[in-house]
Amino acid sequence: MNQTKQKVKEQFHLFLSKKGLKATLQRSLILDAFLGLDRSTHIDELYLLLRGRHSNIGHATVYRALRLFAAAGIAREVNLGDGLTRYEVAGGKRRDYLVCNDCGTVTEFENSTIARHQAELARNLGFTVQSLKIELRGICGNCQERQG
Amino acid sequence: MNQTKQKVKEQFHLFLSKKGLKATLQRSLILDAFLGLDRSTHIDELYLLLRGRHSNIGHATVYRALRLFAAAGIAREVNLGDGLTRYEVAGGKRRDYLVCNDCGTVTEFENSTIARHQAELARNLGFTVQSLKIELRGICGNCQERQG
DNA sequence: AATACAATGATATTCACTTTCAAGCCATCA
DNA sequence: TGATGGCTTGAAAGTGAATATCATTGTATT
Ligand SMILES: [Mn+2]
Ligand SMILES: [Mn+2]
Ligand SMILES: [Zn+2]
Ligand SMILES: [Zn+2]
User: What is the pLDDT of residue A114?
Assistant: First the structure.
C-alpha cells in the first residue's frame, strides 16, 4: 500500500466523519479502485472494473462515490466535451490538456506560469478563483505524420 | 449591416456552394441571429429567439445549422461541462470563461496575452494548436455577497 | 416545368447522468 | 449486545440535451 494512498484514505475518512456520513464497504472498494489507476477514469470504467471483482456494486453508487470524492477534495472532475465526465486524483500540480481533434488522444502537460496571471485578472472582476482549466485542441504529432 | 458580418455571410455561402449544399431561408435567419449576438449562445436560446420572430423554425434545424457553421469555420463550439454546448462566433477574440461553482453563472472576459505563450508550449510537444480554452471556476461576486 | 437531391421539422431515440424509494447497513447509545 | 435512527445502496425510472428518422417541402439545375 502506497504511503500517499493511505493518506488520501485517511483524508476521506475524516471527511466522512465531519459530515456525519458513513464509511461503507462500497466506498472503500471504489476509492481503492480509483486510486489504483494512474490516469483519469470515468464512471462506467470503474463500474465495470468493480463488477468484475465484486458482484454487488451499483452504477449509482459509483456515481455518488465519485462526486463525494470530488466534494472531499480527493478527486477532480474533468470535462473535455466528449460526453463523458472524467475524474482524476486531485492534489499535485495543475495540468493542461492537449486534445487531438483527429484521434481524440488526450495529452497532459504542466505549466504553472499561466495560472497566477489568469487568476489575478479574474480577481479584478470580483471573482474568487478555485480552479483553472486550460484545454488546447489541435492535431497531435502522430496524426500529423499519418497525414503527411 | 456590419461589414464583418457581410463577409462572414459570403464565406458561408461559398462554403455551401463548394459542398453542394443549399442556401435556405432558415440557414440565413439562423446565421443572422447568431451573428447578431455579441456573446456565446446555445441551441435553445437561438431556437426560442427565432421562434418569437418566425413561426416555422425547428429545433433540429438550429442544431444542424450551428454544426454547419462550425464546419464552415464560422462558429466555435464551447463546452463548459454544464450539459450545454455553446457556440460563439469564430474569428473574433478568444474568450475566457468564469464559471461560478455556486450559482452556475458564466461570465466571459477577454485576455489575449496568454494564448500565444500557451500555444508555443504545445508546439514544442509537436502539437499543432487549433483552439485554446481557458476556464476558471470559483465564486462570483454575487454569491460572495450573499454568503457574507 | 421537370428532375434530382438536399433541407426541414415534428417526432422518436439515444445516452450519460441523476433521482427515487424500499430494503439494508453503519454508528451510537443504553 | 441490541435497539434505534439516519445514512446508504442499487434496481429501476426519470431527465434533458444531443442526435437520428422520415415523410414532406424546398432549392438548384437543366
Ligand atoms: Mn431541447
Ligand atoms: Mn447529456
Ligand atoms: Zn491525433
Ligand atoms: Zn455565483
Answer: 67
Cα-based torsion angle of the residue sequence A123, A129, A131, A132 in order, rounded to the nearest 10 degrees: -10
Residue whose C-alpha cell is 482549466: A133
**Partner residue facing A144 (CB), from B100, B121, B128:** B128
Distance from C-alpha of B97 to C-alpha of B113, rounded to nearest angstrom: 15
Q: Which CATH class is domain A96-147?
A: alpha beta
User: How is residue A109 written as a grid cell?
Assistant: 502537460
Give the count of alpha carbons within 13 A of B139, CB side only: 9
Strands of A128-139's sheet, edge to edge?
Answer: A106-109, A96-100, A128-139, B128-139, B95-100, B106-110
| Residues of chain B where predicted confidence (pLDDT) is lower than 50 | none
Q: What topology does CATH give the domain A3-89?
A: Arc Repressor Mutant, subunit A (1.10.10)
Residue whose C-alpha cell is 445549422: B65
- A with B: how many residue pairs have Cβ under 8 Å apart? 118
pTM for the structure as a whole = 0.81
Task: Write out pLDDT tens, residues B48-86.
Answer: 999 988 878 999 999 999 999 999 999 988 888 788 999
β pairing state of B106-110 and B95-100: antiparallel
Q: Which residues pair with A107 in a beta bridge?
A: A98
How many Cβ atoms are within 10 Å of A95's Cβ, its own excluded?
16
Q: What is the pLDDT of residues A51-68, one digit of tens each?
A: 988 878 999 999 999 999
- Is the minimum distance from the CB of A85 to strand D below 7 Å? no
Positive/negative CA dihedral, B29, B32, B34, B39: negative
Strands B75-79 vs B41-42: parallel, antiparallel or unpaired: unpaired
CA of B100 to the centre of ligand 4 (A): 5
Domain spans, chain A: 3-89, 96-147
